[in-house]
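User: quick one - fold this with 3-isopropylmalic acid bound?
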Amino acid sequence: MARTLFDKVWDAHAVNVIEGGSTQLYIDRHYCHEVTTPQAFDGLRRRGLKVFRPERTICSPDHNVPTMHQDQPIADPVSRKQVETLLRNADEFGLTLFGLCHPKNGIIHVIGPENGLTLPGYTIVCGDSHTSTHGAFGAVAFGIGTSEVEMVLASQCILQPKPKTMRITVNGKLRDGVTAKDMALYIISKMTTGGATGYFVEYAGEAVRNLSMEGRMTLCNLSIEMGARGGMIAPDDTTFEYIKGREYAPKGEAWDKAVAYWRTLRSDDDAAFDNEVVFDAADIEPRITFGTNPGMGMGISETIPAYDGDDEAGLLSYNKSLDYMEFKVGQKMEGVPVDYVFLGSCTNGRVEDFRAFASIVKGRRKADNVTAWLVPGSWSVLKQIKAEGLDRVLADAGFELREPGCSACLAMNDDKVPAGKLAVSTSNRNFEGRQGPGARTVLAGPLVAAAAAITGVITDPRKL
Ligand SMILES: CC(C)[C@H](C(=O)O)[C@@H](O)C(=O)O
Ligand code: SF4
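Assistant: Sure. Structure tokens for the protein plus 3-isopropylmalic acid:
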């Protein structure tokens, strides 16, 4: 029978289907960060269990880490305890750990792919919703809760109901100045934040195929923001080229064997999806959000639309959201003054994002009214930024690079946007208070973020 890419990977990992329909799924790769794992390790200790396959789990602190002076003890006691607990647990249970200042440390969703730990055809889990990022490699990757983290540590398996499948096809070519982030924000605004609930999405079509691995990761990263369990893209030569030679990737004969298998990981031509959605890349322009969920977005040249639903509750929450953001229906966003710009996160903290940002700020100066946080997703990204001389371009334009971590994506560390201030952020969530109590977040891609950082107001990068 014809099968989808998702079915092929899922079926290859199904150990058992239990009554009620849940699958016992074998997990190839398990990533751990400091926020969602302490109770899972406590659970193992309580039950006197070891980690079943320690070599399959990789730990890296990222959320609670400061992005300056990581060689010094973390000043904030809560963050310090959180990070130290992960280090202790990794040590006690014999797990690979990339601790602070380790050359392989960084945001878990950035370091997995760049070290060849994320591979096509893998099942990948992490106690983190943006685990969907790894789907860019043709992996079935999804976020899990802390009790499931414990289950995976103890058994290398997880119980999961099988999601439905959806294919989102983006035909044609992206226009100049339009990035993978714009594509993702466009799709979410069309689908709404609940539009893919219960589905595992496969992205397809010319515009998706033409994305680099970095762009594919950005797209898959945001799958969760439309409610999807995960998102994935069939692996191809772009994927194999990216993986080849990375530290944990297969080598020699094992590589050839792996690639031969990976080439089979595509949806059969006549495979049926539970839902199919098609978009045209030519309809996408640089995007920004105006509200407090990632679906409340628009093209940068547009005006804030009126609520298009017909229910009272929806209208109320739409208005509440605009009140929080201090925006009005019908207003243009271009020209709105910006206080903070954040380049980074597991959405846009890879080297390609820094190249994009640098391409706009080159030969220009940072606006005086803007505080800019430029945070590479990992030490390896930072190294590459320097190797390519992008650090000079950024420094000449008045920007400073920080050390890797989740940073201002989520107010769990020192990088908090003050109440009332407006941030243009390349991250993935614009919820109330996400970047700090009272902070107002406008989501955008790296080009729009760079244009805002230079002009001090929301600006269409194509006009610079
Ligand atoms: C802290 C973690 C559980 C959370 C997530 O699951 O996504 C965080 O990474 C986020 O982006 O909100
Ligand atoms: S960078 Fe942001 S979205 Fe990604 S894992 Fe960290 S907090 Fe979550």
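One thing worth noting: The radius of gyration is 21 Å.
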